[in-house]
Design goal:
By secondary structure, the protein is mainly α. The protein has a domain of about 120 residues. About 55% of the residues lie in helices and about 0% in strands. The longest helix has about 35 residues.
């Protein structure tokens, strides 16, 4: 940003007033106000110019390699106004590495990118994502041999089937309880009564 002679005079006067604020006149205040407005307008104009150049740079980059000459010129111009190269710029410059101008710009952009990363690390604004855990592979253990194959893959022997529970033992009879008499075969199977003889018919 360049200042004219009148602007430099006002700026010098503003600095003097900052050191001795009690000596400011109404005219000095008006001059400082106009200078501040001019600076704001220059900053806004610089932002508009930068946005235009960055958008134009993206169009040239998308049309590579046919627009290599214009792209390299625009990139050099935008770097001069504080543009930070993006990964697409680095990839484009690597593709144009055979061009000496592109090789020089690639080295310059690498240095700018490294400086930006170091500055963000120093401010604690860079976060490294944790590596995602690989998804677990589930095996179908219900298939024949599934458990054995899983055990072989894990380096372990297949587990033995759980033993069947022992049958419950009957409680021992109480010796104090009264003993029931053992029935005899005659009581269990009583003798059958003889069948009555058939009647004879009288003729």
């Amino acid at each position: 940003m360049a200042f004219g002679a009148e602007e430099l005079r006002v700026l010098r006067r503003a600095l003097a007033l900052a050191l001795h604020p009690g000596h400011a006149s109404a005219q000095d205040a008006q001059d400082c106000l106009r200078l501040a407005e001019s600076l704001d307008e220059a900053i806004r104009e610089g932002a508009r110019l930068r946005a235009f150049l960055v958008a134009d740079l993206g169009r040239y980059r998308a049309a590579l390699p046919g627009t290599a000459v214009g792209y390299l010129a625009l990139l050099e111009e935008t770097l001069g106004i504080g543009y930070l190269p993006v990964p697409d710029d680095l990839a484009a410059l690597r593709a144009l590495r055979g061009n000496p101008r592109a090789a020089d710009l690639l080295e310059r952009c690498r240095l700018l990118a490294e400086q930006d990363v170091r500055a963000r690390f120093a401010q604690g604004t860079v976060r490294i994502p944790a590596p995602a855990a690989p998804p677990a592979r589930a095996r179908l253990l219900a298939l024949s041999g599934g458990a054995a194959r899983q055990a072989e893959g894990d380096g372990k022997r297949p587990s033995e089937p759980a033993p069947k529970p022992a049958p419950a033992e009957r409680p021992a009879p109480d010796p104090a309880a009264p003993k029931r008499p053992i029935p005899t075969p005659g009581e269990v199977f009583p003798p059958r009564k003889p069948a009555a003889p058939p009647r004879q018919l009288v003729g």
